[in-house]
Amino acid sequence: MIASDEIDRSWWKEAVVYQIYPRSFNDSDGDGVGDIPGIVEKVDYLDELGIDVVWLCPVYDSPNADNGYDIREYRSIMDEMGTMDDWERLRDALHERDIKLVMDMVLNHTSDEHEWFQRSRREEGGYEDYYHWVEGEPDDPPNNWGSFFGGSAWSYDEVREAWYLHLFDEKQPDLNWRNPEVRESLYETVNWWLDRGIDGFRLDVINLPSKPEGYPDGEVDTYPTGGEHFVNGPRIHEYLRELYEETFANYDVMTVAEMVDLDVEEANAYLGADGDGLNMAFHFDHMFLDFGPEGRWDIGEWSVSEFKEIFGEWQTGLDETSWDGLYWENHDQPRVVSRFGDDETYRYESATMLGTLLFTLKGTPYVYQGQEIGMTNADFASLSEVRDVDTRQPVELLLENGEIDSYEEIREAVNYRSRDHARTPMQWSDEENAGFTDGEPWIKVNARYPEINVAAARSAESSVWHYYRELIELRSSSDVLVYGEYDLLETPDPLYVFTRTLGEERVLVVLNWSDEDESFAPSASLSTDDATLLLSNYDDASGFGEATLRPYEARVYGL
Prior knowledge:
Layout: H1 11-14, E1 17-20, H2 36-41, H3 43-49, E2 53-56, E3 60-61, E4 73-77, H4 84-96, E5 100-106, H5 115-121, E6 133-134, E7 154-157, E8 162-165, H6 180-194, E9 200-204, H7 227-230, H8 236-246, E10 254-258, H9 264-270, E11 280-282, E12 291-292, E13 295-299, H10 304-317, E14 325-327, H11 336-339, H12 347-360, E15 364-368, H13 389-400, H14 408-417, H15 454-459, H16 464-476, H17 479-483, E16 485-488, E17 495-502, E18 505-512, E19 518-520, E20 532-536, E21 547-549, E22 554-558
Parallel strand pairs: 1-2, 1-15, 2-5, 5-9, 9-10, 10-11, 14-15
Antiparallel strand pairs: 3-4, 6-8, 7-8, 12-13, 16-17, 17-18, 18-22, 19-21, 20-22
Helix pairs in contact: 12-16
């Protein structure tokens, strides 16, 4: 058991991170697209919420094939987002309030409009092998690898008369990390930003850069096809350790790695001093629980026990030098209250219960914009309302291949799963367009904004927003909730009960993950006259002891 005087403290372990998707956060100039000056306008809001770190999704120069994750120039700001002066104002405004700034960095691929790719397709000296090129006939791709966005991972380039690899959109060619000049160029880019005073990076799909020579065919029953060759590829640890030593090791910064198909054992190889030096990782295990037998566009059943098993594996399986990144939502995931809660009758209760679980597990919690007010999924009535390439492309392929006859056949799945649910504009008020813009928003506004918005949440006596402030304050003042050991208590579904222990300090978390009353009787080992109710999402929650937990009730006790 860890004693309080044996804590290996780090600022990023104790932080609460708030993710901003700039296009959808706040529009300052009325063009319908959120921008950096719009974020500056809301810095006091972030400060009042109590968060410690802002994770800023890409604002680099980009043609926006994948909303900024296709970078055309790493050291320039996208015109729609503002200028480098605007970015510096944001950095300074955050730092003045003791809020750190973490940038999103994409190192696996660039835009096909990047200067490197343009030179590479022309086979200019020194750039020939910056990307993965394979010569061949225009109708015969090099292998059967598939894209994460659907279709082949290869596109034929008429200029070079060769195939190039793109694990995502065809406008996102993969960089060839086997070329040391590519790696050096990327390290220089990372250091360029670190020298400008940022506090770290979220690293996009960072376990994909290593591809095997020869590009062997993949197993056809994997997703995407070929993933066994390029997910956690043959030289990935060599590459990431080198990245760490050439960049992050020289700064006091935070790194969080988004990693595809990651398990606990692999995470320990990537994280901490005993791994590749990265601080923490995002895995997807809990994000796959509601996938049906047919995959992503099939809605499946899930159980509380499955969440207990997955969270327990990550809570207890990481090495002493590894750390977990905790999240429910981000720019790639739908709204959690619509997904694993009840976004109608028990929206407040389920949103706050899910928030309680997030903040009382061991790891660094991430809050996605709008999560703190309980934003819900939207309704995309037609494919023309969908903006996300990762939704449009697979649906268009299903239509093209005759697997569905109309959008209506898949509308329910899109309205459950699409990434666009996280990208509808931030709901600031009940004014037109939710107070996000004076212009025409780039993506539809969720129709529930008159009811669910920041202004209403802040003015209400009780709201998801107020509860998130309490969660943030509780975690920020409690070492046991940051560093304490996790122990699951045996309870039947839908109860989820666990303790966190640090030295003599102990916290009990009791959750009812259902829309019905449930009885809870603590074991004799937990009964104590000194138990204190630290937080609950019901104002009249009873003291410690046998109780009836109401729908989606959450209680946190100090023992």
